[in-house]
Amino acid sequence: MVQWTINTAVVTLMGTVIVIFVDVLAAYALARLNIPGKKIILAIVIIALTVPGIVTLFPAFYLFKSVNLLDTYYPLILPYSAGTLGVFLIYNFLRSFPQELEEAAYLDGATQWQVLTKVIFPSIKPVVTTLGVVTFLAIYNDFLWPSLVTNSDEMKTLTLGVATLVQGSNFVNPAAMMASTVVATVPALLIFLWANKYFVKGVTNSGIK
Description:
Radius of gyration: 20 Å
Shape: globular
Number of domains: 1
Strand content: under 5%
CATH topology: MetI-like fold
Order of helices and strands: HHHHHHHHHHH
Distance between the termini: 46 Å
Largest sheet: none
Structural class: mainly alpha
Helix content: over 70%
Number of helices: 11
CATH superfamily: MetI-like
CATH class: Mainly Alpha
Protein backbone atom coordinates (compact mmCIF):
# COMPACT_ATOMS: atom_id res chain seq x y z
CA MET A 1 0.00 0.00 0.00
CA VAL A 2 2.83 2.41 0.80
CA GLN A 3 4.53 1.83 -2.55
CA TRP A 4 1.23 2.09 -4.41
CA THR A 5 0.52 5.38 -2.62
CA ILE A 6 3.96 6.75 -3.53
CA ASN A 7 3.49 5.74 -7.15
CA THR A 8 0.08 7.38 -7.26
CA ALA A 9 1.40 10.60 -5.70
CA VAL A 10 4.25 10.83 -8.21
CA VAL A 11 2.07 10.06 -11.21
CA THR A 12 -0.86 12.31 -10.30
CA LEU A 13 1.18 15.31 -9.18
CA MET A 14 3.66 15.26 -12.06
CA GLY A 15 0.93 14.50 -14.59
CA THR A 16 -1.25 17.36 -13.33
CA VAL A 17 1.63 19.86 -13.34
CA ILE A 18 2.65 18.89 -16.88
CA VAL A 19 -0.94 19.16 -18.15
CA ILE A 20 -1.39 22.63 -16.63
CA PHE A 21 1.96 23.87 -17.96
CA VAL A 22 1.42 22.55 -21.49
CA ASP A 23 -2.24 23.59 -21.74
CA VAL A 24 -1.69 27.14 -20.47
CA LEU A 25 1.11 27.73 -22.96
CA ALA A 26 -0.82 26.15 -25.82
CA ALA A 27 -4.02 28.13 -25.08
CA TYR A 28 -2.09 31.38 -24.73
CA ALA A 29 -0.32 30.78 -28.03
CA LEU A 30 -3.60 30.09 -29.83
CA ALA A 31 -5.34 33.10 -28.27
CA ARG A 32 -2.60 35.72 -28.51
CA LEU A 33 0.25 34.77 -30.85
CA ASN A 34 0.26 35.01 -34.64
CA ILE A 35 0.82 31.34 -35.42
CA PRO A 36 0.61 30.10 -39.02
CA GLY A 37 -2.41 27.84 -39.44
CA LYS A 38 -3.86 28.79 -36.06
CA LYS A 39 -7.44 28.12 -37.16
CA ILE A 40 -6.47 24.67 -38.39
CA ILE A 41 -4.73 23.89 -35.11
CA LEU A 42 -7.76 25.06 -33.15
CA ALA A 43 -10.01 22.88 -35.31
CA ILE A 44 -7.77 19.89 -34.60
CA VAL A 45 -8.01 20.61 -30.86
CA ILE A 46 -11.80 20.69 -31.02
CA ILE A 47 -11.93 17.50 -33.10
CA ALA A 48 -9.59 15.80 -30.63
CA LEU A 49 -12.14 16.45 -27.88
CA THR A 50 -14.58 14.14 -29.68
CA VAL A 51 -12.13 11.23 -30.02
CA PRO A 52 -12.75 8.53 -27.38
CA GLY A 53 -9.71 7.73 -25.27
CA ILE A 54 -10.02 4.02 -26.04
CA VAL A 55 -9.13 4.77 -29.68
CA THR A 56 -5.61 5.91 -28.74
CA LEU A 57 -5.09 3.36 -25.99
CA PHE A 58 -3.42 0.56 -27.93
CA PRO A 59 -1.37 2.79 -30.29
CA ALA A 60 0.05 4.48 -27.20
CA PHE A 61 0.74 1.10 -25.60
CA TYR A 62 2.68 -0.17 -28.61
CA LEU A 63 4.56 3.12 -28.84
CA PHE A 64 5.88 2.78 -25.28
CA LYS A 65 6.51 -0.92 -25.82
CA SER A 66 8.64 -0.19 -28.90
CA VAL A 67 10.96 2.05 -26.87
CA ASN A 68 11.08 -0.34 -23.86
CA LEU A 69 9.42 2.06 -21.41
CA LEU A 70 6.69 -0.21 -20.10
CA ASP A 71 6.56 -0.74 -16.33
CA THR A 72 8.12 2.69 -15.68
CA TYR A 73 6.77 6.09 -14.67
CA TYR A 74 6.95 7.43 -18.25
CA PRO A 75 3.86 5.71 -19.69
CA LEU A 76 1.95 6.50 -16.49
CA ILE A 77 2.60 10.25 -16.81
CA LEU A 78 3.30 11.34 -20.38
CA PRO A 79 0.04 10.31 -22.15
CA TYR A 80 -2.00 12.65 -19.96
CA SER A 81 -0.01 15.70 -21.11
CA ALA A 82 -1.65 15.52 -24.54
CA GLY A 83 -5.14 16.38 -23.28
CA THR A 84 -7.04 19.06 -25.19
CA LEU A 85 -9.82 19.84 -22.72
CA GLY A 86 -7.66 22.31 -20.80
CA VAL A 87 -6.52 24.04 -23.99
CA PHE A 88 -10.14 24.55 -25.02
CA LEU A 89 -11.24 25.83 -21.58
CA ILE A 90 -8.37 28.30 -21.19
CA TYR A 91 -8.60 29.45 -24.81
CA ASN A 92 -12.31 30.29 -24.37
CA PHE A 93 -11.50 32.25 -21.22
CA LEU A 94 -8.71 34.22 -22.89
CA ARG A 95 -10.99 35.20 -25.76
CA SER A 96 -13.01 37.31 -23.32
CA PHE A 97 -9.98 38.53 -21.34
CA PRO A 98 -9.39 42.28 -21.93
CA GLN A 99 -6.24 42.78 -23.96
CA GLU A 100 -5.95 46.34 -22.65
CA LEU A 101 -4.50 44.94 -19.42
CA GLU A 102 -1.80 43.14 -21.37
CA GLU A 103 -1.04 46.23 -23.46
CA ALA A 104 -0.67 48.31 -20.31
CA ALA A 105 1.80 45.80 -18.94
CA TYR A 106 3.81 45.92 -22.17
CA LEU A 107 3.91 49.73 -21.93
CA ASP A 108 5.34 49.38 -18.43
CA GLY A 109 8.18 47.30 -19.85
CA ALA A 110 6.93 43.80 -19.07
CA THR A 111 8.07 40.90 -21.20
CA GLN A 112 5.67 38.43 -22.77
CA TRP A 113 6.51 35.84 -20.12
CA GLN A 114 5.86 38.38 -17.34
CA VAL A 115 2.51 39.30 -18.89
CA LEU A 116 1.55 35.64 -18.96
CA THR A 117 2.66 34.88 -15.39
CA LYS A 118 1.83 38.18 -13.63
CA VAL A 119 -1.24 39.44 -15.51
CA ILE A 120 -3.01 36.56 -17.21
CA PHE A 121 -2.28 33.59 -14.94
CA PRO A 122 -3.78 35.14 -11.76
CA SER A 123 -6.95 35.87 -13.72
CA ILE A 124 -7.29 32.35 -15.11
CA LYS A 125 -6.57 30.68 -11.77
CA PRO A 126 -10.17 29.38 -11.37
CA VAL A 127 -10.01 27.77 -14.81
CA VAL A 128 -6.55 26.35 -14.13
CA THR A 129 -7.75 24.99 -10.79
CA THR A 130 -10.69 23.35 -12.55
CA LEU A 131 -8.31 21.78 -15.05
CA GLY A 132 -6.05 20.63 -12.23
CA VAL A 133 -8.89 18.97 -10.31
CA VAL A 134 -10.30 17.24 -13.39
CA THR A 135 -6.85 16.03 -14.42
CA PHE A 136 -5.92 14.91 -10.91
CA LEU A 137 -9.10 12.87 -10.50
CA ALA A 138 -8.78 11.38 -13.99
CA ILE A 139 -5.22 10.21 -13.37
CA TYR A 140 -5.92 9.13 -9.80
CA ASN A 141 -8.94 7.00 -10.72
CA ASP A 142 -7.59 5.55 -13.96
CA PHE A 143 -7.49 1.77 -13.96
CA LEU A 144 -7.37 0.54 -17.55
CA TRP A 145 -4.23 2.35 -18.73
CA PRO A 146 -2.05 1.50 -15.67
CA SER A 147 -3.17 -2.12 -15.95
CA LEU A 148 -1.80 -2.23 -19.50
CA VAL A 149 1.57 -0.56 -18.97
CA THR A 150 2.59 -2.00 -15.58
CA ASN A 151 3.59 -5.57 -14.81
CA SER A 152 5.26 -5.55 -11.41
CA ASP A 153 3.61 -4.92 -8.06
CA GLU A 154 6.19 -2.18 -7.37
CA MET A 155 4.89 0.01 -10.23
CA LYS A 156 1.16 -0.34 -9.59
CA THR A 157 -0.92 2.69 -8.72
CA LEU A 158 -3.30 2.76 -5.78
CA THR A 159 -6.41 2.11 -7.88
CA LEU A 160 -4.81 -0.81 -9.67
CA GLY A 161 -3.29 -2.17 -6.48
CA VAL A 162 -6.59 -2.14 -4.58
CA ALA A 163 -8.23 -3.92 -7.51
CA THR A 164 -5.71 -6.75 -7.26
CA LEU A 165 -6.85 -7.39 -3.68
CA VAL A 166 -10.21 -8.63 -4.92
CA GLN A 167 -9.07 -10.67 -7.93
CA GLY A 168 -9.34 -14.42 -7.71
CA SER A 169 -7.40 -16.06 -4.90
CA ASN A 170 -6.23 -12.67 -3.59
CA PHE A 171 -9.69 -12.03 -2.14
CA VAL A 172 -8.96 -13.58 1.25
CA ASN A 173 -9.37 -10.58 3.54
CA PRO A 174 -12.51 -8.50 2.94
CA ALA A 175 -11.69 -6.21 5.88
CA ALA A 176 -8.29 -5.28 4.40
CA MET A 177 -9.88 -4.72 1.01
CA MET A 178 -12.52 -2.36 2.42
CA ALA A 179 -9.95 -0.50 4.53
CA SER A 180 -7.68 0.00 1.53
CA THR A 181 -10.64 1.24 -0.52
CA VAL A 182 -11.40 3.89 2.11
CA VAL A 183 -7.74 4.94 2.21
CA ALA A 184 -7.70 5.24 -1.58
CA THR A 185 -10.89 7.33 -1.59
CA VAL A 186 -9.88 9.91 1.02
CA PRO A 187 -7.24 11.89 -0.99
CA ALA A 188 -9.50 12.36 -4.03
CA LEU A 189 -12.41 13.37 -1.78
CA LEU A 190 -10.31 15.96 0.08
CA ILE A 191 -8.97 17.44 -3.17
CA PHE A 192 -12.48 17.78 -4.60
CA LEU A 193 -13.88 19.37 -1.42
CA TRP A 194 -11.01 21.87 -1.28
CA ALA A 195 -11.29 22.87 -4.93
CA ASN A 196 -15.07 22.69 -5.29
CA LYS A 197 -15.62 26.47 -5.33
CA TYR A 198 -12.83 26.95 -7.88
CA PHE A 199 -14.24 24.10 -9.95
CA VAL A 200 -17.69 25.71 -10.21
CA LYS A 201 -16.23 29.17 -10.84
CA GLY A 202 -13.87 27.84 -13.50
CA VAL A 203 -16.60 26.04 -15.44
CA THR A 204 -18.82 29.15 -15.25
CA ASN A 205 -16.12 31.62 -16.28
CA SER A 206 -14.92 29.49 -19.19
CA GLY A 207 -18.37 29.82 -20.76
CA ILE A 208 -18.67 33.61 -20.36
CA LYS A 209 -17.99 35.62 -23.50
